[in-house]
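During the second year of the project, the team shifted from modelling isolated chains to modelling whole assemblies. The rationale, set out in the original proposal, was that interfaces cannot be judged from single-chain predictions alone. As a representative example for this report, we include one of the complexes processed in the last quarter. Its constituent sequences, exactly as entered into the pipeline, are reproduced here:
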Amino acid sequence: TQTVSQSDAHVTVFEGDSVELRCNYSYGGSIYLSWYIQHHGHGLQFLLKYYSGNPVVQGVNGFEAEFSKSDSSFHLRKASVHWSDSAVYFCAVRKNYGSSGNKLIFGIGTLLSVKP
Amino acid sequence: GGIITQTPKFLIGQEGQKLTLKCQQNFNHDTMYWYRQDSGKGLRLIYYSITENDLQKGDLSEGYDASREKKSSFSLTVTSAQKNEMAVFLCASSNTGGAREQYFGPGTRLTVL
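Output from the structure prediction step:
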């Protein structure tokens, strides 16, 4: 069984600060991890993914995430946040059904608030 | 690029009422999904469909029906709305074989009086 845990419900930082949003997963098969962002009143948007290769993956708008098998983690980072990064961030693990679709298991989300 | 459209944006219903939510995508994606989003609970999969006329139950299918009328559209029916229910229903689509990221619509916000 694959599960994903986001331990921080709410993170508050100031504009220009660095931030790390945490995600831990339980491993139950082939790895596929991703992050999504949801601005208030909108649907989710894909940020980045990892399934093999370099454990540090780059996404849009300066976000990156690092996969760690030993820690069962896939934390999201940004070196310098902007107020427009304020949103809810969801970590997701794919449950691999092969040809029957890509079912994602989502964490409960972390609300990032960026203060000016 | 493509877009996912969900109608209506806001849906207000009465207890026991049957309510239908609609979703259209022009990505030409094979797979479509319906999720329910509740505050503090993340997203839970209700139904998904890997091709036209296909239906697969998710983790939260009880109390819902779905229909994949054609490749571009996927509708969800709340069979009997529960009093004081409030949630956002999100539709998404993805390729099945290639890129695996899901693309989401803006959501339908349901309120049951």
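Chain A touches chain B at residues 9, 32, 34, 36, 41-46, 49, 90, 94, 99-104, 106-109 (CB under 8 Å). The mean pLDDT of chain A is 91.
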